[in-house]
Amino acid sequence: MDPIRRQLEWLDGQTGSGPLLLRWASVHPMVFPAVGLMIGIAIQYLLSLPSGYWPLIALVFMAGCWIAFRRNPGHRTEILSIACLLLCICVGGLRLIVFWQPGPNDIRQFLGEDKSIASLRGRVIGEPFAADKDSWVFGRYSWSGSGSTLYLRLSEGLTTTGWFPVSGTIRVDCRETIEHVHGGDRIELAARIGPINGPMNPGQYDLKKALARRGIFLAASVKSAQGFHVLSKPSDRWIWAGLLRLQRIVNSALVDDSMLGRPAEAMVSALVLGQTRQIDPAVYETFRRTGLAHFICLSGMQMAILAGFLWKLGCAIQLNKRGRAAITLAISILYILIVPPNPATTRAAVICWFFCVAVLVRRIPDSKNTLALAATVMLLIRPTDLMNISWQLSFSTVAGILLFDRSIRHRLLMVTTDQWSASAARLSGIGRWILYDAPMAAVLMLSMGLSAWLAGSGVMLYHFGTITPWASVFTVLVNPLVLGITVLGFLKLVIIGWLPSLSLLLGVIVAALSDTMTWATQILSKVPFCQIRIGRVGLAWIAVLYLLMWGLAFCPMRWPVTRMLRALLAIFGILLLCGMAWKSNRSKDLEMTCLAVGPGQAIVLRLPGGDAWLIDAGSQTSPNIGQRMVLPFLRQAGIDRLKGVVLSHADTDHFNGLPEIAAVVPIERLLANAAFCEKAKTLSGAGFLRQSMEKHGYSIEEIKFAAWPEVPARIRPLWPPPGQQGDPTLSDNDQSQVLLVEYADRRILICSDIESGAQSSLLTQYPDLKADVVVLPHHGSSTTMRPSFLEALAPSTVIASCASSRVTSAWKPSDSAVTAWYTGRDGAITVRIKADGTLRTIGFAHNPSGDFPRGE
Question: Which domains does the chain have, with CATH numbers?
């Protein structure tokens, strides 16, 4: 666009015609009900108001609007828009209440809080899916079977008098692979059913809340696949079978032999079809660190590229606008049916459909109205989507582009291409493209990236505790590769039936582009400050940030005071983020968190000043705790590197989650005692770990029997002593590494799996040993615990890292002055020692916010 014309349009947008509220009410009326609906849902979600309040609130709102309408006849358009917003606030609150209201004969009405056995009938929703063992390194070493999961819409339940109608949807887990059950089948099963468990660790994915947002509140478990009895196949089975066959055909057409077994296979499937399960965790982490994960998570960009590709293809074959709209509408519906469901793609699809329908009925669509209408439709169908991270990111980033892009683009072009536009106008061909067209395209992409990043940064900060300052620049650099892979991938699907040779050639090109994109992202992830990890940020701070952003978006730039205000608000936001980052890394407290991993151990020790240590990372029953539990905790805690990892002994339930952590988090030192190092040279679990860690560039270093120079805290290895390390007379458990952590005249003793023999020897070697906190030996087992051991240590707090099923049989203190904590019951347990020696302990299951009481 000509710079002078663009400046005139920008000035027209700044000056406007009439007040801001009137302009939005006249041009973008659909925004008001969408915003009202979101506010009402949010209020009801946070406050849980009784349903009778909302009609009363609506009456008050309408009375106030009626009075304002009568007294201000010159502002009736604005008043009607405000009335619509207020009324939709009430509609949003009531819609959430209705959504969560149990239906007639809901299964929840017949069950209590405890699990019970029930015989149920219902129809399977979607296809059963199996657990992914490939993403867990030790899944290949000690995998006990790939279980399956399905969702069941209930129709009947067995009572003492026979089958009785019930309603509701439940999640069903099976320990075996289910092969004879498919989507749409009507089945019968006997299962153990009860409420869904919430997360036991900070940062862990909250399956309970995620399913509640879908109206699913109960989970059932079936031991064997033979427990599923198919009663009937659906009459519309051919639709389900056709969609599955279409998915397989599309996948095989997209991924040919040239990509099989290569990283390109996973990358192409992710970029075009949204199938991310095959992405290597280390590769995914580089995309996440650089802020480019939206490319491989099936964002709305894929739908936009598909719609643009179909539109251009229609132009190439000389279709008129309505023909292009009809083809785009039909194929986009088909695309939504074959890709995984996702709020971002659904939002993009709804916008695309509204656009196509507008063209078909000869109407000119408005982008803001279309986005607001898409949000309204989706929230009316499922109001809990508002609490979904994907939904928040999807709509906030698009809204940011619509609100901020024009202003940011104008300023960027003024300082870049406008400076040499006059010279470029005298050029033609490749010269003009290099000097003007290509830089302008880069600036436009940067402008959109900055706009989306600004609007989505608050969501990322709240949910993940990170910001990615370079994401907009990286998007410009990588976008040509993404565009090439996606467009050529779609083209490959179109021509494979007519031009198979050309399709194979496109496959080679797409594979090369995918490999290049992976390599480029890995290089970009090493750029300093590509990701700033802050840790958990309160909702109030996020609200302040968004208020600042919207203030920047809506304040007229022509006011001199506004320019000063914008500068001050921007500086305040930067200082706020810097202050939170500094505070999260410069605490004077020592914190030890014993994560709830079942029968196993994973302890994160954060020292004053920010250095973090990990002591073990494994579990006997919980698969892949590295990805599922430890890494989410580290991210929420703002820990982006580990000073060291200590491996206590050679049982796999203490280290089988470590490879996934090492693939993502840099580790300065990997330490183990001599017994572990010898075991790692053999064909064993420790040997398998050594090989896995060497692939990431880590070697196991033997622990020196001396205090590590950590100031002001100190970590001391106490057992086994040098003379008994590797002693064949000691069991593997008795060769476990025992550590003593000292800070502010307080002591924490981490006992690992030592049994009664080592406990007695430890007291003999250190007769004056005392500890304020003891992590109990061998997961709190009472059979291997020597009572005199804890009596001599005289702790005030003991912690057992055990499964929930072992809490009742775990060791219990006889002294009422000793407080016992169990990860299987209390969740992750955090001990905090302040610089003045104050010691406090909390359990995550009883305090999910993770905050200590005020003043502590």
Answer: 3-100 (no CATH), 107-235 (2.40.50), 242-387+472-528 (no CATH), 590-843 (3.60.15.10)
